Amino acid sequence: MRRSGWRHWIRDPRRSSKYWSPRPCAGVHVAALPTFEPFASRLDFQWTPEQVRGDEGGEVSAETVRVAIADAAARIASATPRLDAELLMAHALGVSHQDLLLKHLSDPAPSSFDALVARRLAYEPVAYITGSRGFWTVEIGVGPGVLVPRADSETLIEAAVAHFGGGQGPGRVLDLGTGPGTLLLAALAEWPEAYGLGVDSSEAALAYARRNATTLRIADRAIFKPGDWATGLAGQFDLILCNPPYIGIAEELGPEVRGHEPPAALFAGADGLDDYRRIVPELPRLLAPGGLAVLEIGWMQGEAVSALMRGAGLDPVLHHDLGGRPRAIAAKMPRS
Predict the structure, then answer these.
(1) Is the pLDDT of residue 96 over 50?
(2) Which of 17, 142, 308, 312 is the 20 to 30 Å CA partner of 88?
(3) Which residues contact 4 (CB under 8 A, 6 or more apart)?
């Protein structure tokens, strides 16, 4: 299955994708990747003023990128301090994460890196600082006011790919609670013949979604409109995707999530099920014959949401994330 690189490396003690932050995959030791330093970098070399000036004239420090990353990682309080520091450094340098590790560790560190680290020390999400997060095969622009895409939400796309297989893909896709367009744009990138509708109650999120569609050059196949879940929607769709809020209001969250991401995208009543109770009954009328609905769930909500699905006349199937936990529920509309 196609994955979003480093961004698929996530874990969280609460085991809900809305809590998680990235970490390296098991068995992959990013810090141990080989580097190929120029011989001069191993000498007691003194940088001249000309050499500590960036290609564009920006000021940089005589401290190397490697040292600056290590120093930042020692101060960042997150599950993935080293990865966070590397991603911020790659952003400061304007290079990819891979190029950073292979080509730039011996370069002088840019002075702009310190300001990025300061924002991370205040628990601002890395994706807000860098302005984007990879998801499936696309890059999603994000910022304050929108939910940061989580790699475990790719489980929904995987379920859809498995359903449609190598045959004809979905013609019409609906994304309820689209946020910055994460699920819809990933689906439209997966199926170039598909058209889609994304609905969200947040105008800020819809603005990001429209910009992302334009950046990905699929704006001609995506429509985004304000709305309250499925209220007022008509027509039938071959694929319905939805990542609703599913955290109970009394549940504890880390400062990175609670202090920065929009509460409306996180919380759903005392038990976290309020929005499922509104969404699930609408699915049968919106699904085309043979169509599929896939909803993200919290890892302990499988039974409760499955019961709602069965009550709506649907036959739910659980799909698990990379950690083996229930992450999505899919239901197919019979053809007759």
Answers:
(1) yes
(2) 17
(3) 133, 134, 135, 136, 137, 151, 154
Cα-to-chain-centroid distance, residue 300: 21
Q: How far is residue 175's CA from residue 188's CA, in Å, rounded to a whole number? A: 11
Tokens of 54: 């960036």
C-beta of residue 142 within 8 angstroms of C-beta of residue 208: yes
Determine the Cα–Cα distance for residues 253 and 84; give it in Å rounded to an integer.
19
3-class DSSP assignment, residue 231: coil
Nearest CA among 85, 146, 86 for reference residue 121: 85
pLDDT tens for 9-32 read 333 333 344 444 343 333 333 333
Rounded distance between C-alpha atoms, residue 216 and residue 198, angstroms: 15
The closest of 219, 159, 176, 150 to 12, measured between CA atoms, is 150
What residues does each domain of the chain span? 33-122, 142-332
- What's the token pair of residue 223? 């429509």
Q: At what angle do helices 81-93 and 112-121 cross, to 10 degrees?
A: 140
Contact predicate 184/241, CB 8 Å: yes
**What are the two backbone dihedrals, phi and then psi, of residue 288, each rounded to the nearest 5 degrees?**
-75, 155
The pTM (predicted TM-score) of the whole model is: 0.82
- Count how many residues are written for the chain: 336
Q: Could you tell me where the DSSP H helices lie in 76-202?
A: 81-93, 97-103, 112-121, 126-130, 154-164, 182-190
**CATH number 1.10.8 given to 33-122:** yes
Cα–Cα dist 99/82, whole Å: 16
Phi, psi of 88, rounded to the nearest 5 degrees: -65, -40
Alpha-carbon gap, residue 295 to 297, rounded angstroms: 6
CA separation for the pair 155, 3 (Å, rounded): 10
Element (H, E) at 304: helix 302-311
- Topology of domain 142-332, per CATH? Rossmann fold (3.40.50)
What stretch of H or E contains 311?
Answer: helix 302-311
Which residue's structure tokens are 């992450």? 327
